[in-house]
Specification:
This protein has 422 residues and is of the alpha/beta class. It has helices at 18-29, 45-55, 64-68, 85-94, 109-122, 136-147, 166-176, 191-196, 213-229, 237-260, 363-376, 405-418, and strands at residues 9-14, 35-41, 59-61, 75-78, 98-101, 126-128, 182-188, 267-273, 279-287, 294-303, 309-316, 320-326, 337-343, 351-356. Bound molecules: nicotinamide-adenine-dinucleotide (NAD). Nicotinamide-adenine-dinucleotide (NAD) is lined by residues 14-20, 42-44, 47, 64, 79-82, 84, 102-103, 129, 131, 248, 329.
């Protein structure tokens, strides 16, 4: 059992790439009363050394093993490639370290269970980086949703899992589906566009990466795709693309849905993706919740080429429409706002719009701040691994806690598989 760390918590970082250079290292530097980064490692030693000298990290380690065993590391931040999250988390946990793991937690149910088993055995805490849920605006949004009456129920029925030509599809939707209850959107431009304008000047190092590392990553990815998708479909580009996109970006929204609506959707009525799997639309349904027994969520996520980050969750209740709008996390200080549209109680018959901006503090800073307090005081975390024991071992719909994307993903992937590609 690892004891609660004292402040400042000593952090070792695995992965000196973009998110570490642009987000985590600057954020941790601004929180010296809570954290001190003591070591960093990367496949590229040049990347570790660069981050070490730019951000004043005393030690650049040659290997992950060396870093996780350091006495002066209380917590390991895992910011390496998705394929290695499972291995790196287990190595850090087995060395008795608390873990802050970048999303996605991992890419397979097997890895999620491995991480949870190790976590329970070692008595450490693992936090999964769904930072959007730590934004102060999210707390206000949830409160507004809770006090605004039931989420509206679209009782029109189910969209069959298939593709129609646009004309007939539209008319089908009009005939059978009443307005949805929530809209969740994550349509974003390329990271590099925002990073280039963030003023953080990250550098990518690849030249000194050992020969064989790229092949190892590729083999690991293939193994994980097969474990998740099954051998027959693991080679279908649109399914692999959808799986990776949902796990990496869609998981943010799925995680927000989980907390806003008190759990994951009960089913995915339909889902659709492009050839590359990088643009996905899905219709999720929550049963036995809201007005009349349930409600639907219209979900869309995708990557486009324009420098716009359009990410929100919008909930329709009888009283008001409440929207929580996020901007890119790669630029520090961009506000996260709540937009409320409703009847104006002060002027009968009129309508009002309000914008609430609780703070300019970014969600990562909030997350790291909440985490320090929880670890120091040995309090439970919010975004945990939390594999539900009741569904462990089920073949296809594992409840993977903050790997929640995988549950929805299974559902959406089944739906996409049953339909046709766009
Ligand atoms: N929370 C968020 O919004 C958010 C945003 C960006 C990235 N991320 C996540 O952070 C992680 C890193 O993303 P990134 O954009 O920095 O990627 P990146 O490719 O820029 O950096 C990853 C770094 O990890 C290193 N690495 C890869 N495999 C390794 C291994 N086996 N051992 C040691 N080092 C290894 C690479 O050399 C690279 O420098 C990903 O899991 C990504 O999904 C999360």
């Amino acid at each position: 059992m690892t004891s609660a760390p004292t402040l400042p918590i000593r952090v070792g970082i695995i992965g000196a790439g973009e998110v570490s250079q642009v987000v985590h290292l600057p954020t941790l530097q601004l929180l010296p009363h809570l954290y001190k980064v003591t070591a960093i490692t990367d496949l590229s030693l040049a990347a570790s050394k660069h981050a070490s000298s730019k951000f004043g990290v005393p030690q650049a380690c040659a290997t992950v093993d060396e870093l996780v065993k350091l006495q002066n590391v209380d917590l390991v931040l895992i910011a390496s490639a998705d394929e290695y999250h499972g291995d790196h988390a287990v190595a850090a946990i087995n060395a008795g370290k608390h873990v802050f793991i970048e999303k996605p937690l991992c890419l397979t149910r097997q890895d999620a269970e491995r991480i949870q088993d190790a976590e329970q055995k070692a008595g450490v805490q693992v936090n999964v980086a769904y930072m959007r849920r730590y934004a102060p605006a999210f707390e206000i949004f949830k409160q507004l949703v809770a006090e605004s009456g039931p989420v509206q129920y679209g009782e029109g029925g189910t969209l069959p899992v298939m593709s129609w030509p646009m004309q007939s599809r539209h008319s089908l939707i009009c005939q059978r589906i009443r307005p949805h209850a929530a809209v969740v959107r994550d349509l974003i431009g390329p990271n590099e566009f925002f990073v280039a304008q963030s003023g953080t000047s990250p550098i990518k190092f690849v030249e000194d990466i050992p020969a064989g590392a790229a092949n190892d990553k590729k083999a690991k990815a293939e193994e994980q795709h097969q474990a998740f998708l099954g051998t027959k479909t693991a080679s279908s580009a649109h399914l692999v693309g959808a799986y990776r996109w949902l796990a990496s970006v869609g998981s943010h929204s799925l995680s927000l849905m989980r907390e806003t609506f008190g759990g994951l959707p009960d089913r995915c009525d339909a889902a659709h993706t492009t050839e590359k799997g990088d643009f996905i639309t899905a219709a999720f349904r929550y049963k036995n919740k809201g007005q009349g027994g349930g409600f639907a969520v219209s979900f869309e996520t995708g990557l486009h080429g324009v420098g716009v980050f359009d990410s929100f969750i919008e909930v329709f209740t009888p009283k008001r429409i409440i929207k929580l709008q996020y901007d890119t996390p790669f630029v520090k200080g961009l506000p996260i706002t709540i937009i409320i549209r409703e009847a104006d109680p002060a002027i009968p018959g009129s309508y009002q719009e309000r914008v609430i901006r609780p703070t300019f503090v970014d969600a990562y800073t909030s997350e790291w701040t909440v985490l320090a307090e929880a670890l120091e005081q040995d309090k439970p975390l919010k975004t945990t691994v939390a594999v539900s024991a009741s569904v462990r071992g089920r073949a296809c719909y594992p409840d993977l806690g903050e790997c929640s994307s995988l549950t929805c993903l299974c559902s959406a992937i089944h739906s996409i598989r049953a339909g046709r590609r766009a």
